[in-house]
């Protein structure tokens, strides 16, 4: 057990360094949208060096003016959607689990609270609140438009997180206590598994145009959440391809047009 605790200490030291790096790069050098800066920061907080590595491989601008082309591959689009979803849902789950753990509530109520709070936090904050400007400025409309994609994605995140938490916490009761290092180790592992399970679901949602993938503020204009800017870019994309009927599902313009995220 001493070895496990030592490994956890080393993991969280690396996590702190990873979060510091991602925060510095995202907020000072990367033209991603503000919501994704916070999304990567939160996900790296939960997944440590793995989150930082994924940030470098899929989102960090490799050179001046290269972000738009760098993020075009489908797997990066799907990962961006997954990160946006995980940042909101995992935050809600971890906050709820910590509160119910400190209150000493039974596990069934703990699990129910995590699901409900994780879904609501992901939907009402990371989805609807950050999507409302892109969807015309109406918060109610944003909730309506993002409800179904968030539900699909949230269920995938929970399908990964909940079994990890239940199994490991039942095997080691100290892992149920928010004051324990092992509790946060379980949360970190649960978030990683949740991300893996949610990734193929988000790939499908992005390909089906139920969600948008990774984007850049230079493609959508200031703030990165301009519906008018996205419509102009979609129109330009159709004109360039000579396809007036609409864009092909899951494709991006050369400028990384689909910068707004539903996930």
How would you characterize this protein structure?
- Helices cover 72% and strands 0% of the residues.
- With 263 residues, the protein is an all-alpha fold.
- It has one domain (2-207).
- It is globular and about 60 Å long.
Which descriptors apply to this entry?
263 residues; mainly alpha; 10 helices; 0% strand; disordered C terminus
Secondary-structure element string: HHHHHHHHHH
Provide the β-strand percentage band: under 5%
Approximately how much helix is present in the residues? over 70%
Mean pLDDT over all positions? 78
Taking the sheet with the most strands, its summary is: none
Write the layout of secondary structure elements.
Elements: H1 2-28, H2 34-47, H3 49-58, H4 67-70, H5 74-103, H6 107-131, H7 139-171, H8 181-207, H9 217-220, H10 227-241
Helix pairs in contact: 1-2, 1-3, 2-3, 2-5, 2-8, 5-6, 5-7, 5-8, 6-7, 7-8
What's this entry about, in short?
By secondary structure, the protein is mainly alpha-helical. The protein is 72% helix and 0% strand.
């Amino acid at each position: 057990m001493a070895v496990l605790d030592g490994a956890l200490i080393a993991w969280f030291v690396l996590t702190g360094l990873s979060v510091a790096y991602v925060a510095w790069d995202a907020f000072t050098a990367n033209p991603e949208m503000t919501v994704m800066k916070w999304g990567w920061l939160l996900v790296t907080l939960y997944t440590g060096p793995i989150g930082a590595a994924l940030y470098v491989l899929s989102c960090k601008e490799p050179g001046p003016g290269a972000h738009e082309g760098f993020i075009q591959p489908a797997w990066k689009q799907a990962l961006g959607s997954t990160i946006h979803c995980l940042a909101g849902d995992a935050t809600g789950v971890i906050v709820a689990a910590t509160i119910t753990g400190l209150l000493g509530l039974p596990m069934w109520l703990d699990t129910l609270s995590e699901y409900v709070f994780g879904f609501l936090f992901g939907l009402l904050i990371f989805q609807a609140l950050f999507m409302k400007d892109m969807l015309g400025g109406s918060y109610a409309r944003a909730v309506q438009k993002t409800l179904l994609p968030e539900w699909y994605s949230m269920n995938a995140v929970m399908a990964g997180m909940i079994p990890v938490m239940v199994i490991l916490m039942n095997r080691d009761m100290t892992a149920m206590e928010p004051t324990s290092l092992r509790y946060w180790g379980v949360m970190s592992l649960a978030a990683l598994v949740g991300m893996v399970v949610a990734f193929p679901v988000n790939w499908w949602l992005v390909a089906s145009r139920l969600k948008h993938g990774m984007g850049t503020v230079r493609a959508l204009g200031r703030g990165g959440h301009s519906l008018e800017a996205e419509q102009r870019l979609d129109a330009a994309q159709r004109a360039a391809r000579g396809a007036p009927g609409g864009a092909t599902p899951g494709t991006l313009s050369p400028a990384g047009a689909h910068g707004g995220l539903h996930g």
